Amino acid sequence: MVGLYQKGITLIELIITLALVAVIIASIAPLGRSWIATAHVSKAQSVLTQAFNKSKTEALRNPNKVLSDATNPTVATITINNTAKTVTVTNSSSATIWNDSFDQDTTITLPTACSSKILLNNTVQLLNSSTPATIDNTCSSYTISASSAQSVTGVLR
Q1: Closest residue by Cα to residue 135 from 75, 89, 73
Q2: What distance in Å separates the CA atoms of residue 22 and residue 43, rounded to the nearest whole number?
Q3: How far is the C-alpha of 51 from the C-alpha of 44, rounded, in Å?
Q4: Other residues' Cβ atoms within 10 Å of the Cβ of residue 84
Q5: Higher confidence at residue 136 or residue 15?
Q6: N or C: which end of the chain has fewer CB within 10 A?
Q7: In a 3-state reduction of DSSP, which class is residue 144?
Q8: pLDDT tens-digit map of 57-90
Q9: Domain 11-155 class, CATH top level
Q10: 74 touches 62 (CB < 8 A)
């Protein structure tokens, strides 16, 4: 017959199109999760760097006049709480001077000697958290990991 033309799409064409869209979405979803986890690691690294900068400023200002030869010469402390997902900077009087949070799927790890704290004296030297009168530069290293992203290691400077 002359003049008969098909209008619209057939059911088979619709099913094939939907199947292709589903395959594309399924292949992109893991990339999205990885991208989000990488963003969470970057945010945690930024929070830790900000905390270190705030603590260096506090250590240099040394408003409570803590001497570096004291039995506890800590002027500023960075505390990392992986349960509450917070990073807090306190001064020598334990008053909070800065606080921020990082994402729930992210963990910040310090060397074993540092536990979950980074201590600074009035000359911005890092101290050992178990014996605060001891200078310990290993406390400047860290590892940040998230659920489906590569871990990032770094050194605070």
Answers
A1: 73
A2: 32
A3: 11
A4: 9
A5: 15
A6: N
A7: strand
A8: 999 998 878 777 767 788 999 999 999 999 999 9
A9: alpha beta
A10: no
- Contacts of residue 150, defined as CB under 8 A and 6 or more positions apart, other chains included, come to 38, 41
**Placement of tokens 């605060």 in the chain:** 132
Q: Length of the chain, please?
A: 157
Question: What is the per-residue DSSP string for 56-121?
Answer: HHHHHH-TT---TTSSS---EEEEEETTTTEEEEEETT--EEEEEE--TTEEEE--GGGTTEEEE-
Residue 148 corresponds to which tokens in the numbers above?
């489906």
Q: Which residues does 143 contact at the CB level (< 8 Å), separation at least 6?
A: 108, 109, 151, 152, 153
DSSP state of 126: E
Gap between the Cα atoms of 132 and 68, Å rounded: 10
Cβ–Cβ < 8 Å for 80, 117: yes
* Amino acid letter for position 75: V
> Residue 104: is its pLDDT beyond 90?
yes
Residue from 78, 102, 117 nearest 152 by CA:
102
Q: Are 89 and 61 in contact (CB under 8 A)?
A: no
